[in-house]
């Protein structure tokens, strides 16, 4: 691990002729953090310089010469982490959930005086999940009815998932753009929550089940037919190509980027 003075971008090391990116992982002992540590260690062009988890000193990131932080922590701590990274000129690839418009606006304000720093907030790094969102957006205008079901492991801290919220919002935007009225629904809820959470007019249902990792279905319906789109992450390795892509690209993408679909040309 290398060290450098805080508040300065460290000089990159090299792997052959290619510069090596110094990576720090926040939430390094968690389910996703552990997988990121493995993926970074396996990549020739990346060097793991800092592993930080709850109770560790954030300044360790700057002291180790971190150029890009990957954050998989918790919604209640992630904003402080991002603030620290921006203040210390460290690019930030964030997979942690819990971002609404107000949080995104705050990050944009923090970034304003730091035009060279990049923050990528990605609700999902899985290629299949991103394609599902894209297909759902495409299909939305053809189906008056739509519901989202997300299914996850029971240790997940939040509900609904960040991916489900993003998917529902993208579908709602596509419906509005097509001038569609709200989805038909004559049901009155006998028990609160029976129809799921309302995200921008789209019902979102959250299932928590032992044995699952991360899964999502979008159900669409019209007269006499339905369309079901489903994505399954069976292993957290599924998120790693997207995470590494963001780590490699963020240096060339200053400012705030939401989602990695543009990095993939989607
Ligand atoms: N964008 C994506 O593709 C994905 C996002 N996620 C999201 O990532 C987040 C983490 O998920 P998991 O790894 O399953 O959770 P986890 O609970 O296994 O890991 C979180 C880790 O963060 C640590 N932590 C807590 N506070 C911290 C702090 N202040 N500084 C540093 N570390 C701290 C915890 O000790 C723990 O080790 C969740 O918000 C989850 O929804 C999960 C999978 C994929
Ligand atoms: O906590 C998880 O596991 C996941 N979180 C993200 C989310 O909330 O969308 C991404 C993926 O669904 C796995």
From TrEMBL:
Function per UniProt: Catalyzes the conversion of 4-hydroxy-tetrahydrodipicolinate (HTPA) to tetrahydrodipicolinate.
GO biological process: diaminopimelate biosynthetic process; lysine biosynthetic process via diaminopimelate
NCBIfam families named in the record: dapB (TIGR00036)
Pathway: Amino-acid biosynthesis; L-lysine biosynthesis via DAP pathway; (S)-tetrahydrodipicolinate from L-aspartate: step 4/4
GO CC terms, sorted: cytosol
Active site residues according to the UniProt entry: 152, 156
Domain Dihydrodipicolinate reductase C-terminal, first and last residues per copy: 128-264
A molecular-function term among this protein's GO annotations: 4-hydroxy-tetrahydrodipicolinate reductase
Enzyme class: oxidoreductase
Catalyses which reaction(s): (S)-2,3,4,5-tetrahydrodipicolinate + NADP(+) + H2O = (2S,4S)-4-hydroxy-2,3,4,5-tetrahydrodipicolinate + NADPH + H(+); (S)-2,3,4,5-tetrahydrodipicolinate + NAD(+) + H2O = (2S,4S)-4-hydroxy-2,3,4,5-tetrahydrodipicolinate + NADH + H(+)
Pfam families: DapB_C, DapB_N
UniProt gene name: dapB
Binding-site residues, (S)-2,3,4,5-tetrahydrodipicolinate: 153, 162-163
Location of the Dihydrodipicolinate reductase N-terminal domain: 21-125
Subunit structure: Homotetramer.
Stated name of the protein: 4-hydroxy-tetrahydrodipicolinate reductase
Family per record: Belongs to the DapB family.
């Amino acid at each position: 691990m290398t060290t450098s003075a805080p508040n300065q971008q460290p000089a990159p090391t090299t792997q052959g002729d290619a510069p090596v990116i110094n990576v720090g992982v926040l939430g390094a002992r968690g389910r996703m953090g552990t997988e990121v540590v493995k993926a970074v260690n396996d990549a020739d062009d990346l060097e793991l310089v800092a592993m930080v988890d709850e109770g560790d000193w954030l300044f360790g990131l700057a002291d180790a010469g971190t150029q890009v932080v990957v954050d998989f922590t918790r919604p209640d701590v992630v904003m402080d982490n991002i603030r620290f990274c921006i203040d210390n000129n460290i690019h930030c690839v964030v997979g942690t959930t819990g971002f609404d418009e107000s949080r995104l606006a705050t990050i944009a304000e923090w970034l304003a005086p730091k035009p060279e720093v990049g923050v990528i907030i990605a609700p999902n790094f899985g290629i299949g999940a991103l394609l599902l969102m894209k297909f759902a957006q495409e299909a939305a205008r053809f189906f008056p009815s739509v519901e989202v079901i997300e299914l996850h492991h029971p240790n997940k801290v939040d509900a609904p998932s960040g991916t489900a919220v993003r998917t529902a919002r993208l579908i709602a935007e596509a419906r509005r753009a097509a001038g569609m009225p709200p989805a038909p629904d004559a049901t009155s809820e006998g028990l609160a929550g029976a129809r799921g959470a309302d995200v921008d007019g789209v019902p979102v249902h959250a299932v928590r089940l032992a044995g699952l990792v991360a899964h999502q279905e979008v159900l669409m319906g019209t007269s006499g037919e339905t369309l079901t789109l489903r994505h399954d992450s069976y292993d957290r390795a599924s998120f790693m190509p997207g995470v590494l892509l963001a780590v490699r690209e963020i240096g060339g993408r200053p400012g705030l980027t939401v989602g990695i679909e543009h990095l993939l040309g989607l």
